[in-house]
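Methods: holo model generation. Sequences were used as deposited, without trimming of termini or removal of tags, and paired with ligand SMILES retrieved from the corresponding compound records. Each pair was processed once, and we did not select among multiple samples. The sequence and NAP SMILES for this entry were:
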Amino acid sequence: MNIFITGVSRGLGKELAVHYTELGHKVFGFSRSLPEHPDGIAEILFASGNFGHYAGSVNNDADIYAAVGEAVKFMGSIDALINNAAYKNFKMPDEITAEEYKESVQTNLTAPILICNKIIPLLIKNGGGKIINLSSNAGMVSYAGGTAYCPPKAGLINYSRCLAKFLKDKNISVNAISPPTFSTGDYRRTNPEINHGRLLQSEKIIRLTDYLLFGKKFITGKNFPVFRFKTWLKYYYYKQFELFEYLFQSRLK
Ligand SMILES: NC(=O)c1ccc[n+]([C@@H]2O[C@H](COP(=O)([O-])OP(=O)(O)OC[C@H]3O[C@@H](n4cnc5c(N)ncnc54)[C@H](OP(=O)(O)O)[C@@H]3O)[C@@H](O)[C@H]2O)c1
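and the model returned the structure below.
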């Protein structure tokens, strides 16, 4: 399979790139910088012959155009797109600048939409394909420091559902993945003081991308929260509680 992945320089995107090139698939990565850690990882990826890369910003139309063009040159075609690049800014509304708000909406919502628009005609030409948009549970919950990050991530979930409806007859699946905070090799390296055992591990997300890319069943228009069981129970309980509270209050009136 020929897979186009954004945000491959670190974190989950880099792990996805390593995983799929090791499995023998072709991967084309798009990020401003190359994968860095451990030293020599980029060279190992390139030496496999299965990895190509374009250094540029997903927020620049000319870079999107060039990256997709280079990807087709390198892989011949594109079968799957994983929109993974993200801008994380959790500042409070009174600290965050207008530019930072714009960058958050641009990187987390507008860029994935524009990249889909560029790649969809290629998937249609191929007779089908898979699109996976990395959202976040921040797209489903709310907190004071989330005014920049949560809204575009929520938008990405609903965008994926709309696009899935548009593409339902074209054999192109579109799904969103919305994990809570998770641990990656890079996160463990840069934040050793955190108890990573308590966090969701990136391997679980990769298992889900495997399922969405290679599973036999055609699944589209879904959002996968990938909660750990305990978190899921808490979320479910909280949602029920909100509903009960509403029903109770409306009875009092
Ligand atoms: N980590 C978590 O706990 C968590 C939880 C829920 C959801 N998620 C979502 O999961 C995905 C992966 O998260 P992560 O923590 O692994 O990400 P990360 O470590 O923060 O890495 C972000 C990636 O996006 C790239 N990127 C950022 N701005 C870009 C731009 N303008 N143009 C091109 N590339 C750009 C970065 O590369 P360059 O800087 O080299 O360009 C980097 O490779 C994201 O969509 C994130 O929102 C993460």
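The chain has a mean pLDDT of 93.
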